[in-house]
Amino acid sequence: MINILFTGDLAPLGGLKKVGSNLSNNIVDKRIYGLFNKTDINIVNLETPMTNASINIEKSGPHLKSKPSNIEVLKNLQVNIACLSNNHIRDFGDSGVIETIEVCKNAGVKTVGAGVNAEEAAKPLFIEAQNKKICFLNFSESEFNYATDFRAGSNPDEIINIINSIKAVTKKCDYIIVVLHGGKEMHPHPTPYQLKLFRFIADQGVHAIIGHHTHVIGGYEVYNGIPIVYSLGNFLFDEPGNAEAWYYGAIAFLGIETESNTIRIDFKYVKLENGKLVLLSEPFKDFRMKAISEDQVNTAWQNLIQKQGVGTIKSILNLSLMERLLLKLKLKNLSSYKSKLIPLGNRMRCKTHQMFTIDAIDHFTK
Question: What is the mean pLDDT of residues 224-248?
Fold first, then answer.
């Protein structure tokens, strides 16, 4: 049996950022170390570059980074692999990406999912365990993070890229595991598109798919015998002021029975409480890994649109104070903006229009 441990987002911030190399059991529960000690391979999503770089890139959203000395957090947990394909790896540009890879390498931690260019970022990682070769492929949704032929960054989850990557390694290993960073933040379900994408990837001959990014536990399924985890939530992301779900995470244990080629998946749960990561004896009722169905996913998505869609539309329209006041007083409604929203929807829906718009924006914001 090959035992592989996966966690969600690890961001050495808060208490971890302060302790640096002097990580103590006051930060991480001793029993969590015990879990990492019992497995063949331990994998985390490293959600921050580890760099001394001071110049960040232009982007929307926060810039994250931690000190290179915080690699001791991964070393003390006996992490073998750091997944780097995520939406923060390029927050401090090429320097941040390159330094992070080098810091991990010097500490004996292998990396996958990022590189000095697109070709390097797409490279698979092969690990031998119990005389079997396991291939890890790591992708993430494209925000400001993705690598190109001319810059460092993460490996994008474009479907052609994913399929080509799987085809290239199928005959070179015994097992293929895909780790994918994406989804709707703080939404405890996959999106309908994610459900289709992950299942389609499963149909290409991979043996398991592990997801994270949403910062909340996001459900799982066993699809045609293939374990699919949509989001493990946060593992250790010490950032105050977030919703309660932020501080709960799942650890996935993938067991590969090499003789029968059967794969099982189990979960343990952690909680960040008063600056300490503790192992829960049982999952909290509201924050645990639940089996999902397509109907549940679609219903949850529609409910989210109903709840948050108005705010999104208002932000897209860039309304004046007067227009916002008229909407608030119900003297005007969003349907009156159809003439703006319909062409915008088409620009986003049609792949050619979408790519032209993206490339035009990139061109004029360089």
Answer: 95
Of 274, 292, 310, the residue at which a domain comes to its end is 292
- 252 shares a domain with 230: yes
CA angle, corner 115, sides to 166 and 53, nearest 5?
Answer: 150
Asked whether 20 and 66 are in contact (CB, 8 A), the reply is no
∠ CA 191-194-195, nearest 5°, is: 90
Q: Is there a contact between 37 and 70 (Cβ–Cβ < 8 Å)? A: no
Same-domain check for residues 228 and 189: yes
Q: Helix or strand or coil: residue 206?
A: coil
Output the average pLDDT for the chain.
93
Q: Give all strands (DSSP E) within 41-108, no chain letters.
A: 41-46, 81-83
Co-location of 186 and 69 in the same domain: yes
Instruction: Give the relative orientation of helices 159-169 and 192-202 as an angle to the nearest 10 degrees.
Output: 20
Predicted TM-score of the model (pTM): 0.94
- Per residue in 149-191, pLDDT (tens digit) is 999 999 999 999 999 999 999 999 999 999 999 999 999 999 9
Are residue 288 and residue 192 in the same domain, yes or no?
Answer: yes
Domain span at residue 281?
Answer: 2-292
Q: Is 25 in contact with 231 (CB distance < 8 Å)? A: no
More confident position, 285 or 92: 92
Which of 124, 55, 51, 119 lies closest to 83, judged by CA? Answer: 124
Are 154 and 259 within one domain?
Answer: yes
